[in-house]
Design goal:
The complex is a heterodimer. In chain A, about 0% of the residues lie in helices and about 45% in strands. By secondary structure, chain A is mainly β. In chain A, strands 2, 4, 5, 6, 9, 10 and 11 form a seven-stranded mixed β-sheet that branches. Chain B is about 0% helix and about 55% strand. In chain B, about 40% of the residues are buried. By secondary structure, chain B is mainly beta. In chain B, a hairpin with a 5-residue loop joins strand 6 and strand 7. The chains are: A mainly beta, B mainly beta. Chains A and B meet through strand 5 and strand 10 of A and strand 4, strand 5 and strand 10 of B.
């Protein structure tokens, strides 16, 4: 089981460029979450997706950020016209469907190793 | 709304000493609670979770946490710290089936 795969692990962009971060969930998981970790801060929720649907995007900045989880392929977090303040580690996590969880029903997230974005 | 507060952004202990990392939560309904550990330049790894089955929860690497409803706390402990425990620890809360809300994290240092 390959776990949650994120790529690229490191990405450098200049101000104004676009950044695309990809996340392949664990096999059998259909829920994907994106979190952002700024230096010296905790993880901030950004968005929660299921296949072809955005379930909760309450943590997404209103502009320049978008996310998708298509029927085929990985989930993608897209940041347009990056600014220095976007420099952070972006973590993806996945979880199974409600039916496939353990008897407690707890939503246990499995995290990827993260993508570290540096904006010059 | 749910929230988590971790008291102390940095905790330092000596090798062999007790580890105590504090977490208080706020939730209008019975929550699920989690502790995750993050080693440098890595993702988060689940240490343990509380799901209302038992108030004392045992996790990996000798860690455990006790859910105290009256204190709205879920502190993480380990009787004897090891050098390999040095990492950042995150407490998190969620409602059934929902996203996790994380605390600010506590960096644990272990001195030889």
């Amino acid at each position: 089981n390959a776990g949650v795969m994120q790529n690229p692990r490191h990405l450098v962009r200049r101000r104004g460029q676009e950044a695309r971060l990809r996340c392949s969930p664990m096999k059998g998981h259909s829920h994907v979450y994106w979190y952002r970790q700024l230096p010296e801060e905790g993880l901030k929720f950004m968005v929660y997706l299921q296949k072809e649907n955005i379930i909760d995007e309450s943590g997404m900045p209103k502009e320049r950020f978008s996310a998708e989880f298509p029927k085929e392929g990985p989930s993608i977090l897209r940041i347009q016209q990056v600014v220095r303040g976007d420099s952070a580690a972006y973590f993806c996590a996945s979880s199974p469907t409600l039916r496939d969880r353990d008897t407690s029903g707890a939503n246990v997230l499995t995290f990827g190793a993260g993508s570290r974005l540096t904006v010059l | 709304a749910q929230s988590v507060t971790q008291l102390g952004s940095h905790v330092s202990v000596s090798e062999g000493a007790l580890v105590l990392l504090r977490c208080n939560y706020s939730s209008s309904v019975p929550p699920y609670l989690f502790w995750y550990v993050q080693y440098p330049n890595q993702g988060l790894q689940l240490l343990l979770k509380y799901t209302s089955a038992a108030t004392l929860v045992k996790g990996i690497n000798g860690f455990e946490a006790e859910f105290k409803k009256s204190e709205t706390s879920f502190h993480l402990t380990k009787p004897s710290a090891h050098m390999s425990d040095a990492a950042e620890y995150f407490c998190a809360v969620s409602l059934r089936g929902g996203k996790l809300i994380f605390g600010q994290g506590t960096e644990l240092s272990v001195k030889p």
